Amino acid sequence: METIKLTDENILLKPDTRADIFLSSYFNISRSTASGILAAGKVTINGKNQKPSYKLKNTDIIEYDPRFLNNAPLEILPQNIKLDIKFEDDNLLVINKQKGILTHPTAHQRKDTLVNALLYHCGDNLSNKDEPLRRGIVHRLDKNTAGLMLAAKTDAAAALLQKQIKEKSATRKYLAIALGVFDKKEGAIDKPLAHYMSDSVKMQIAKKREGKDALTYYKVLKQFEGAALVELELKTGRTHQIRAHMASINHPLFNDTLYGSKGHTIEKYRNIKTDEQVLISYYLSFTHPKNNEIMTFELKYDDWDGDFKKVLGILEREKR
Q: What ranges do the domains of the chain cover?
């Protein structure tokens, strides 16, 4: 499912706008088509089916399956995008995803994603044939988070790998540059997460009954002036989990403007330019879905994202 946030600056929602009229304009489809997909329950508003005449509010969250916007199946085209593959067999791939690339296509971006690259590399030998936007995807990384991630070639492999992630038998560790001076060198952040108001992207700490459980372990590896190198281990896989959790303990990630880094960056770091948050997925361990072998991968320094190495290098020099 994809989400439309009505608070987006590109969306001008007039008072008393009908749902069918909005969808017709937003997707450039006929009003009758928009009414049909609403009536068929292929689009939900705030998690519920609504009539075409429903009057939208700025706080509404619209979810839809892009496959139902056209009569023809949604087609995602292969693209010859270079992949940094750390392991590959007939069941899966381990990839070092570069920063700045989406994991999978969305309704508004159908190319230049990891899925487009996987389709070119693997052809039709990818899981999730019934979900064209997510071919091969087992779990995702944010666009501006680099590092190790899994892709599956078969549905059986995808199911077993996703089960390991859900049951926490797979281990995923990240490295981040977090702002501030830590009082505690390690700890656990156990705080439920939910979408921030009607924002379909940003997450916030929520009450237990309103959010989804989220658990992150952190360990400070090096403390610098005003920032630290931190290792983080995910025990759940919520959207923006690390970023929201670290901000919640007053240690947002370096240059993570969505979660308040601007208010924390000390003056001498303000001119360090990076593409959003400085975060990499550097360690991955799981059981192979076919032969039950424990497989462990760890990115060495040479394979780290360029922004990460740049910021860490500056901090290291400042400490001398």
A: 2-65, 85-166, 171-297
> Which H helix or E strand runs over 156?
helix 155-166
CA atoms within 13 A on the CB side of 185: 4
CATH superfamily for domain 2-65: RNA-binding S4 domain (3.10.290.10)
Q: Is 142 a catalytic residue?
A: yes
What is the structure's pLDDT at 292? 96
Low-confidence residues of the chain: pLDDT under 50:
71-73, 199
Catalytic option among 60, 142, 305, 307:
142
What CATH number is given for 85-166 in this structure? 3.30.2350.10
Tell me which residue has tokens 């039950």.
Answer: 292
The pLDDT, as a whole number, for residue 73 is 45
Do the domains spanning 85-166 and 171-297 agree at the CATH topology level? Answer: yes
Query: How far is Cα 136 from Cα 116, in angstroms, rounded to an integer?
Result: 10
pLDDT at residue 10, rounded to an integer? 56
pLDDT value of position 192: 92
Strand 146-152, strand 279-287: pairing: parallel
Residue 246: count other Cβ atoms within 10 Å of its Cβ.
26
CA distances from 132 to 78, 105, 320 (A): 12, 9, 51
Report the C-alpha gap between 87 and 285 in whole angstroms: 13
Output the pLDDT for position 297.
98
Q: Do 125 and 315 form a contact (C-beta atoms < 8 A)? A: no
Residue 109 gets the label, from left (phi > 0), alpha (psi -120 to 50) or beta, of beta
Alpha carbons within 13 angstroms on the beta-carbon side of residue 195 total 14
In this structure, are residues 120 and 85 in contact, taking their beta carbons and an 8 Å threshold? no
Tokens standing for residue 303 = 């394979």
CATH topology classification for 171-297: Pseudouridine synthase (3.30.2350)
pLDDT of residue 28: 67
